[in-house]
């Protein structure tokens, strides 16, 4: 048992280092003036991301071994989904503010699985945007998703009832509090959560965000693409973790693209990934359209890419366009 605990700690430290390496390579790629160097650094970053996924899965397996209830049915492969993109997909109902055109879709459904998106007006000029992905599939993923939603709801209630200032809803504070309140539940269910939370603050033309190991969202500006790569540890690993936040300027016409990895890691019959590159391409080519129309274009391209092959992971996609 002691040996397993020691290995558990080693895995956690390895995940920290993979996260740091992922951030390092991506930041270096953003700063590099050379296209060849940039491409190489992005490839290295993606390798670190894949290594982190492998380590997290091993951490899940070890958590199950250490669990007193070893027979518990957690995130088993048999719970994986398989479905086709519907002809007329239904958008998820999402709150927004006057100056933000928001469109969100969750496939195959927003109720089953571990993906979730939430948006809520903080005031007339501030909009909270949160997306997360529970590692795994099936009922257990749904249970942990419900816990995250309930905990977030309590934080929002405190502010909306005017029992707290804006600070509890700031990105660093929200992610830190969610992690503290959910770590025990994550360990109990042998799972972890990747999460991205941002506040669109149109009173100061800025986006403030914090990430717990989530697939980096993208901000497509008029002439530049920003990959919001500053990701920290997954939620559920370190209860005492204090998450940080980052800020970037926003302008009318900018499009914030948030998603779970199910869409970019989708494989076609030739085992090729849909990838971030295709996602960026379709948004860049259709930025003049509404968020809803861009979502439709993305799904159309994804359907062409799959050529009849089924999707085997749920995904959530959200586009927020600044008017």
In brief:
This protein has seven helices and ten strands. With 323 residues, it is an alpha+beta fold.
Q: Please, could you describe this protein's structure?
A:
A hairpin with a 2-residue loop joins β2 and β3. The chain folds into 2 domains: 65 residues; 240 residues, Phosphatase 2c, domain 1, CATH 3.60.40.10. About 3% of the residues have low confidence. With 323 residues, it is of the alpha+beta class. It has a 5-stranded antiparallel sheet with strand order 1-10-9-6-7. The chain has 7 helices and 10 strands. Helices cover 41% and strands 20% of the residues. The protein starts with a helix and ends with a strand.
Q: Which runs of at least 5 residues are low in confidence (pLDDT < 50)?
A: 70-78
- CATH names the topology of the largest domain as Phosphatase 2c, domain 1
* The CATH homologous superfamily of the largest domain: PPM-type phosphatase domain
Q: Ends: how far apart?
A: 57 Å
Q: What is the CATH C-level name of the largest domain?
A: Alpha Beta
Radius of gyration: 19 Å
Tally the helices.
7
Task: Give the biggest beta sheet.
Answer: 5 strands, antiparallel
The portion of residues assigned to helices is 40-55%
Shape-level CATH architecture of the largest domain:
4-Layer Sandwich
Question: How is the topology of this model organized?
Answer:
Layout: H1 2-31, H2 35-66, E1 100-107, E2 115-123, E3 126-134, H3 139-160, H4 171-188, E4 193-201, E5 206-212, E6 218-220, E7 225-227, E8 246-249, E9 255-259, H5 261-264, H6 275-285, H7 291-306, E10 315-322
Helix pairs in contact: 1-2, 3-4, 6-7
